């Protein structure tokens, strides 16, 4: 009972200290609440329609105009200007009057007539991936459709329309996107970002709390108190503060945010909660370990904020995992977000079970154990440091 009492006392003292600091509260409460809403709102339109586009038609032939008519008739692209040269088109992009440029070379029709391969230039404003996706996919689909028509024209004329259709497309297929019916960025990007927000805000919150203690206690991260003598009790007490809070925030993210923005959410709730427990624990203990390098409140912002985007790529969610070099792949295993993002996406968006994400699930528990031991070791060093300082003061 004494151990439980000491843990609860540490938990209470840490909770009071956290809620006294407005900076920490911003990172551990307001950011997890409002940032997912802001991020989801930005990408709430899964696709964009009628993207303003400029054209530089250097060919100016019937075939080039046919290509442009098909592009303009698509739901995603709207041609609003025909420019005389690329410089005029670039100027329109700079002024954000258009978000892309389609350039047809002067040899477009001649190359096709001779049976040579030709090319069309597509230039997109990369300030928004949605514009890039709409223009590129539209031009690609139109070029594929025209390829089939040109191929049929060069075949030996057939006596039936059915034969022309078979020649144009020998194998018909149906494109059915799995787990992301809209093929939108929100359904693809927001689920892993939610997990990354949890990890990064924990790093910032715990880091700021540690830096605050160091500033107030002359470099020590724990106060001189009878309740702060056992490193295990200290680590567990500190962990409870953030674990209970983020367990509630996780439920908010995975229920309200997903439903409010109609994101894929087909996983079992029990499976999701079983998976989130080791993820939260590993993130908290990982943050405690990294907080050993935080000596001022502001240090954690410089140390942790800039790694958010690299971690998203290293996870293998937004960048193909097979294309990540071996060193960086194993390096990413240091961070709980790597396993958390992959496991959550498969559970929430694909309906996987814990058995299906066994590798990620077990890896998170391994990280929890390793980072817990490291955190205890670091706090044991802090206890010895504090006792040594107190004994030197007493002797003087």
Summed up:
The protein is mostly helical. It has helices spanning 2-20, 22-42, 62-72, 86-94, 108-114, 129-153, 161-168, 185-216, 231-260, 269-290, 299-304, 308-314, 326-331, 336-350, 358-395; strands spanning 51-57, 77-82, 100-104, 121-124. The two termini are 37 Å apart.
What does this molecule look like?
There is one protein chain. With 396 residues, this protein is mainly alpha-helical. The protein is built from 15 helices and four strands. It is 65% helix and 6% strand. The chain has a four-stranded mixed β-sheet with strand order 2-1-3-4, with helices on both faces. It is elongated. The mean pLDDT is 83.
Per-chain topology:
Blueprint: H1 2-20, H2 22-42, E1 51-57, H3 62-72, E2 77-82, H4 86-94, E3 100-104, H5 108-114, E4 121-124, H6 129-153, H7 161-168, H8 185-216, H9 231-260, H10 269-290, H11 299-304, H12 308-314, H13 326-331, H14 336-350, H15 358-395
Parallel strand pairs: 1-2, 1-3
Antiparallel strand pairs: 3-4
Helix pairs in contact: 1-9, 2-8, 2-9, 6-7, 8-9, 8-10, 8-14, 9-10, 9-15, 10-14, 10-15, 14-15
Using the CA coordinates, give the radius of gyration.
29 Å
The strand line-up of the biggest sheet is 2-1-3-4
- Averaged pLDDT: 83
Q: What structural category do the secondary elements indicate?
A: mainly alpha
Approximately what portion of the residues adopt beta-strand conformation? 5-15%
Which runs of at least 5 residues are low in confidence (pLDDT < 50)? none
What number of domains?
A: 2
Q: In which range does the helix fraction lie? A: 55-70%
Order of helices and strands: HHEHEHEHEHHHHHHHHHH
**How far is the N terminus from the C terminus?**
37 Å
Main beta-sheet annotation = 4 strands, mixed
The total strand number stands at 4
Shape designation: elongated
Number of helices: 15
């Amino acid at each position: 009972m004494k151990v439980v009492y000491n843990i609860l006392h540490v938990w209470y003292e840490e909770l009071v200290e956290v809620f006294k600091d407005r900076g920490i509260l911003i990172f551990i409460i307001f950011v997890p609440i409002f940032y997912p809403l802001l991020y989801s709102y930005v990408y709430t339109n899964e696709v964009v329609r009628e993207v303003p586009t400029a054209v530089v038609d250097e060919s100016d032939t019937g075939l080039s105009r046919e290509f442009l008519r098909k592009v303009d008739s698509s739901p995603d692209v709207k041609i609003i200007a025909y420019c005389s040269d690329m410089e005029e088109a670039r100027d329109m992009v700079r002024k954000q009057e258009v978000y892309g440029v389609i350039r047809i070379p002067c040899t477009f029709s001649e190359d096709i007539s001779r049976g040579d391969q030709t090319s069309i230039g597509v230039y997109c404003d990369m300030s928004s991936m949605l514009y890039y996706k709409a223009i590129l996919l539209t031009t690609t689909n139109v070029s594929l459709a025209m390829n089939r028509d040109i191929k049929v024209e060069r075949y030996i004329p057939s006596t039936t329309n059915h034969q022309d259709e078979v020649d144009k497309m020998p194998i018909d297929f149906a494109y059915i996107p799995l787990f992301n019916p809209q093929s939108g960025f929100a359904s693809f990007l927001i689920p892993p970002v939610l997990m990354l927000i949890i990890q990064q805000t924990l790093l910032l919150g715990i880091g700021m709390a540690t830096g605050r203690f160091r500033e107030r206690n002359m470099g020590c991260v724990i106060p001189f108190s009878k309740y702060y003598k056992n490193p295990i009790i200290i680590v567990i007490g500190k962990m409870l503060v953030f674990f209970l809070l983020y367990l509630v925030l996780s439920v908010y993210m995975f229920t309200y945010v997903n439903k409010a923005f109609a994101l894929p959410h087909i996983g079992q709730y029990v499976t999701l909660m079983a998976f989130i427990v080791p993820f939260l624990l590993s993130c908290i203990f990982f943050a405690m370990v990294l907080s050993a390098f935080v000596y001022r409140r502001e240090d954690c912002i410089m140390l942790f904020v800039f790694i958010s985007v690299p971690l998203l790529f290293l996870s293998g969610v937004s960048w193909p995992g097979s294309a990540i070099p071996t060193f960086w792949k194993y390096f990413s295993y240091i961070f709980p977000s790597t396993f958390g993002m992959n496991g959550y996406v498969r559970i929430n968006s694909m309906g996987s079970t814990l058995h299906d994400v066994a590798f990620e699930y077990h890896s998170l528990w391994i990280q929890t154990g390793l980072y817990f031991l490291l955190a205890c070791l670091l706090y044991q060093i802090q206890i010895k440091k504090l006792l040594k300082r107190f004994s030197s003061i007493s002797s003087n």
